[in-house]
Write a structure and sequence with these properties.
alpha+beta; 2 domains
Length: 262
């Protein structure tokens, strides 16, 4: 075999080997997209303020939801707040949900989702706002999203009344790539109600599951409708068929190149 043929065969082996390694890396990166959608340690936060207080039957509890994007431009904020009740009807009812008028008047914001309903033994409050400005919206301080008014109709079975954020249904979408950047919500609202049961309940936040497949939460205009959330499918970060096919093809090319060099 002449030198030119040997050189050509070695060049084919080098190129095929490099392409094989690069292909494996790219295929593996594609498999890991779902994993990178998780936001453990996300920088954006949501909170209640005021988060405590003492009330009695007939009083109105005033609290509000705030958000902070840590100076990251975002395209939307959606939160789900829940609190438990006993019996056939809630002891504490939602009387009003009001999106921040200053935020709405600043331009780019719409907040059509402001609804409440009962789901099992919980009262659910959904608030969803979207920003359509090209640069998104960024803030590094707690910013009012919406005010919530609750009416104490009768003494609850358990006091304090505890409001929590649903970690699965609450999201803050980054403008650049629509990824959820909301950290696991840990803020709670804890309101003592005179005459309520003395059992103290400390909620344990459930595991936050996020996915990049859902765009900015679609605002809902309905009210009182019962909705059963459909969890997003967890991404499969394992070895898939593209990975196996690419591996076999790359090995075949390298083997063929070796035969040419013999």
């Amino acid at each position: 075999m002449n030198a030119k043929k040997i050189f050509a065969a070695l060049l084919v082996i080098f190129v095929a080997g490099g392409g094989f390694v690069a292909g494996l890396i790219l295929l593996r990166e594609r498999q890991d997209i779902g994993e990178k959608a998780a936001v453990a340690g996300g920088r954006a936060t949501v909170s209640f303020n005021p988060a405590t207080g003492n009330y009695k039957v007939g009083d109105t509890i005033q609290t509000a939801v705030y958000f902070n994007t840590d100076n990251i431009p975002v395209s939307g904020v959606a939160v789900r707040v829940r609190y438990p009740f006993s019996g056939t009807t809630p002891e504490v009812t939602v009387t009003s949900i009001e999106a921040n008028p200053t935020l709405l008047s600043s331009g780019g914001w719409t907040c059509p989702t402001q609804e409440t309903r009962q789901e099992g033994g919980n009262v659910i409050i959904d608030i969803g706002c979207a920003n359509d400005l090209a640069g998104g919206y960024a803030t590094n301080q707690n910013t009012l999203l919406a005010s919530i008014s609750l009416r104490v109709q009768r003494a609850p079975a358990v006091s304090p009344l505890v409001l929590t954020f649903d970690p699965v249904e609450s999201v803050i979408r980054r403008r650049s790539d629509n990824q959820d950047i909301l950290n696991n919500p840990t803020s709670i609202g804890s309101f003592n109600i005179e005459g309520g049961g003395s059992v103290s309940v400390t909620p344990t936040p459930s595991t936050r599951v996020t996915s990049s497949v859902t765009p900015t939460q679609t605002p809902r205009l309905t009210s009182g409708a019962t909705k059963t959330p459909t969890p997003s499918a967890m991404p499969d970060a394992g070895v898939g068929y593209p990975f196996v096919f690419g591996s076999v093809l790359g090995l075949a090319v390298i083997f063929a190149a070796i035969l040419l060099a013999i």
